[in-house]
Amino acid sequence: MSGPEPQDIHVGSDGIRLNPFLKFAGILDSGGDAKEAIIDGYVAVNGEVERRRGRQLRVGDVVTFEGRSFRVQA
């Protein structure tokens, strides 16, 4: 059984880096909080833990944090 559908986050382009995405989407309040969450392994991209802040996200990628999922949309 799968969880709820990911919330679509429109980034206005073909992609965005992971760290700014977390702040832009309102998932975390600051870039510093996003950096810590990523480095500590609390963020997953497409189901796999991602520890690179500069990971380039593409349209359709799904970011998960604390049981909530967000899908990158153009």
Please give the count of helices.
2
Per DSSP E runs of 2 or more residues, the count of β-strands stands at 7
The CATH superfamily name is RNA-binding S4 domain
List the helices and strands in order: EEHHEEEEE
What overall form do the CA principal axes indicate?
globular
**Gap from first CA to last CA:** 28 Å
Helix content: 10-25%
Global mean pLDDT: 94
* Helix-strand makeup class: alpha+beta
How many structurally independent domains?
Answer: 1
Main sheet summary: 5 strands, mixed
Uncertain residue segments: none
Which architecture would the CATH scheme give at its second level?
Roll
What fraction of residues sit in β-strands? 25-35%
Side by side, the strands of the main sheet go 1-7-6-3-4
Pfam families: S4_2
InterPro entries: S4_RNA-bd_sf
Keywords: RNA-binding
Protein name: Ribosome-associated protein
Structural overview:
This protein is an alpha+beta fold and 74 residues long. It has one domain (7-73): Structural Genomics Hypothetical 15.5 Kd Protein In mrcA-pckA Intergenic Region, Chain A (Roll). It is built from 2 helices and 7 strands, in the order ββααβββββ. The chain has helices at residues 18-24, 31-39; strands at residues 7-10, 15-17, 43-45, 48-49, 56-58, 62-65, 68-73. The strands form 2 sheets. A 5-stranded mixed β-sheet has the order 1-7-6-3-4, with no helix packed on it. Strand 6 (62-65) and strand 7 (68-73) form a beta hairpin. Helix 1 packs across helix 2. The longest helix has 9 residues, at 31-39. The mean pLDDT is 94. This is Ribosome-associated protein. Pfam families: S4_2 (PF13275). Keywords: RNA-binding. It comes from Microbacterium trichothecenolyticum (Aureobacterium trichothecenolyticum). InterPro entries: S4_RNA-bd_sf.
